[in-house]
């Protein structure tokens, strides 16, 4: 895994301004094709200012490391029970593995002792220098494909210092940069990074503040205000809309999104992201309730219909991930 490779680079990377700044990363995905132009390496940062019911990266929401449990890999050696200093691990009479997560101090003793990899620590501290070593390995792919680096999460701006330092390092290295944000962060944090962002991937979930709060944990006031500001900054913006049946896919709501987007500048595209059920096992592995287990994935035909509704006021460049 790229994140393990980055960890091994510690001794080579403690140089350069900002290189030692550390961030909490839960994944580094290479050769991604839907998170900005060309082939990209996506760095996933932990911690989000929202908690969307449809989140497909639920392990990104908490700003702290988390133990994930994969019972299908467990060989019942009970090492975790013996080594945990806080009695987090218990096995029931039926053999079920129960974690008292409130007691966990994220020390990593159990995950390092579980050779079956049934226990995995989600979230590792990496320096900017370590991440840059990994990013630079794929420079030839970026150059051949017009790609680059995308910071995602979680919400990258929740780790403002690290995100800024990493973007600065990418630009200094001549790499194309994109940031995937929900926008629910102070404008000053976004503003500071603008000189180092080539493309903003901006999530838009719901136009109604109450519905936004109900499904995402906060109103949309700050996110919409920041989007208006960003659209005046000159940074190209791709709008990303998770399309969730019965939540935000009605004709009236989609048309309202279209009208709002028609009032903005620098929108280079809109990407419709259909809700996928794939994250169910992730929720179980970190002990977080799945609030949307029954919702179906919208069909391609429905997504194309939605794209039509969205363009009633003004044509948009719409991409459909389906
Ligand atoms: S250490 Fe890993 S393999 Fe052993 S009982 Fe615990 S979870 Fe299962
Ligand atoms: S990370 Fe540490 S405290 Fe948490 S369950 Fe594992 S051993 Fe126990």
List keywords for this structure.
about 325 residues, globular, two-stranded antiparallel ribbon, binds iron/sulfur cluster, 9-stranded mixed sheet, TIM Barrel, alpha/beta, 13 strands, 12 helices, about 30% helix, Alpha-Beta Plaits
Q: What this model shows, in words?
A:
It is a single chain. By secondary structure, this protein is α/β, with parallel strands linked by helices. It has two domains: 2-62 and 125-278 and 293-320, TIM Barrel (Alpha-Beta Barrel); 66-122, Alpha-Beta Plaits (2-Layer Sandwich), CATH 3.30.70.20. It contains twelve helices and 13 strands. The protein has helices at residues 2-7, 79-83, 109-113, 128-137, 139-145, 160-172, 187-193, 209-216, 221-231, 251-262, 280-286, 300-310; strands at residues 22-32, 40-45, 66-69, 89-91, 97-99, 119-122, 124-127, 148-152, 177-181, 199-203, 237-243, 267-274, 318-320. Bound molecules: iron/sulfur cluster (2 copies). One iron/sulfur cluster (SF4) binds at residues 67, 84, 86, 88, 104-110.
Task: Give me the secondary-structure topology.
Layout: H1 2-7, E1 22-32, E2 40-45, E3 66-69, H2 79-83, E4 89-91, E5 97-99, H3 109-113, E6 119-122, E7 124-127, H4 128-137, H5 139-145, E8 148-152, H6 160-172, E9 177-181, H7 187-193, E10 199-203, H8 209-216, H9 221-231, E11 237-243, H10 251-262, E12 267-274, H11 280-286, H12 300-310, E13 318-320
Parallel strand pairs: 2-8, 8-9, 9-10, 10-11, 11-12, 12-13
Antiparallel strand pairs: 1-2, 1-7, 3-6, 4-5
Helix pairs in contact: 4-6, 6-7, 10-12
Bound molecules: iron/sulfur cluster (SF4) (2 copies).
């Amino acid at each position: 895994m790229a994140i393990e490779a980055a960890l091994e680079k510690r001794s080579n990377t403690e140089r350069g301004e900002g290189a030692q700044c550390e961030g909490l990363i839960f994944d580094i995905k290479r050769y991604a094709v839907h998170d900005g132009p060309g082939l990209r390496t996506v760095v996933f940062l932990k911690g989000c200012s929202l908690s969307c019911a449809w989140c497909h990266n639920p392990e990104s929401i908490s700003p702290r490391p988390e133990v994930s449990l994969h019972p299908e890999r467990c060989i019942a050696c009970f090492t975790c029970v013996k080594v945990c200093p806080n009695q987090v691990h218990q096995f029931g009479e039926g053999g079920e593995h129960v974690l008292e997560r409130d007691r966990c101090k994220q020390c990593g003793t159990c995950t390092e002792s579980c050779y079956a990899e049934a226990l995995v620590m989600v979230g590792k501290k990496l320096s900017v220098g370590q991440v840059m070593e990994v990013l630079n390995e794929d420079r030839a792919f970026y150059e051949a494909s017009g790609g680059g680096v995308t910071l995602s999460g979680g919400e990258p701006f929740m780790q403002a210092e690290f995100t800024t330092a990493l973007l600065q390092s990418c630009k200094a290295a001549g790499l194309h940069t994109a940031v995937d944000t929900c926008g629910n962060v102070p404008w000053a944090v976004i503003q500071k990074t603008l000189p180092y962002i080539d493309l903003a991937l901006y999530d838009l979930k719901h136009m109604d503040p109450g519905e936004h709060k109900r499904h995402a944990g906060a109103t949309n006031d700050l996110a919409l205000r920041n989007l208006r500001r960003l659209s005046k900054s000159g940074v190209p913006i791709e709008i990303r809309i998770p399309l969730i049946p019965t939540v935000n896919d009605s004709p009236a709501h989609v048309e309202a999104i279209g009208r709002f987007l028609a009032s903005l500048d620098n929108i280079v595209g809109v990407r419709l992201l259909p809700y996928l059920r794939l994250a169910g096992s992730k929720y179980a592995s970190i002990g977080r309730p799945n609030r949307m287990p029954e919702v179906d994935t919208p069909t391609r035909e429905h997504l194309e219909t939605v794209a039509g509704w969205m363009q009633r006021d003004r044509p948009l460049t719409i991409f459909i991930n389906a």
